[in-house]
Amino acid sequence: MGRERGIPISDKTAFTPGRHTEKYNQQSLCTGTTDMKKLILLLTISASALAADDMRTPIQIALEFNRWYINQVNNDHYPISEGHEIDKYVTSSTMQKLRHAQDPRYADDEFYEADFFTKSQYIGDDWPQNVSVASYDTDPVCVSVNISFGKKKPHTVIDCMIKENDVWKIQSVVARDNN
User: Fold this and answer.
1) pLDDT digits over 48-104, tens only?
2) What is the helix (H) or strand (E) element at residue 126, kind and residue range?
3) Which of 16, 105, 119, 170 has the most CB atoms less than 10 A away?
């Protein structure tokens, strides 16, 4: 048996080039009719969309918010009344109600004994370093994310997460019995 024409791949097989069936496309620098530049652009846009913030889970956002919020308050910054960074984590209707409640004209009528997001009057000394997700549950109303603060004496709240404009945000917070 003689050797066939082509480039040997192994001792027993040989590659025989096939004939070209399509024209060479100088605009896209490839054979065929697929425009590779458009395909690469489409893949790049798709990858960017997958990495977007709105692709994060409600659990990730609740944890990120609570870590950020505890550190803000612990450093004597009050996000409800200072700036608008909190707006990316909390629904607009909830923020409107919270800002209304802090208005001095209405503060006496709508007094809260504890912080809305921590459901506590203080921040434990180990809270800023120990914010974690204890559990979560999904129902038709919201995704309930149980957030625990501290290790010495854990304190847990439940963030009700809903989608607002395709982004998961906190709608409400309730305290969980920590016995």
Assistant:
1) 444 454 589 999 999 999 999 999 999 999 999 899 999 999 999 999 999 888 777
2) none
3) 170
Count CB atoms within 10 A of the CB of residue 62. Answer: 28
For residues 128 and 148, is the Cβ–Cβ distance under 8 A? no
* 57-61: Cβ within 8 A, 24+ apart: 57/168, 58/136, 58/143, 58/145, 58/161, 58/168, 59/133, 59/136, 59/143, 59/145, 61/89, 61/161, 61/168, 61/169
Q: Residue 172 is encoded by which pair of tokens?
A: 């409400």
The Cα–Cα gap between 157 and 144 comes to 10
| Dihedrals phi, psi of 175, to nearest 5 degrees | -80, 145
Does 27 have pLDDT greater than 90?
Answer: no
d(CA 158, CA 146): 4
* Cβ proximity of 159 and 170 under 8 Å: yes
State yes or no: pLDDT of 5 exceeds 60.
yes
| φ and ψ at residue 158, rounded to 5 degrees | -120, 115
Tell me how far apart the alpha carbons of residues 15 and 18 are, in angstroms, rounded to a whole number: 9
Strand order in the sheet with 167-175: 131-138, 143-149, 155-164, 167-175
For residue 8, the SS3 value is strand
The owner of tokens 């001095």 is 104
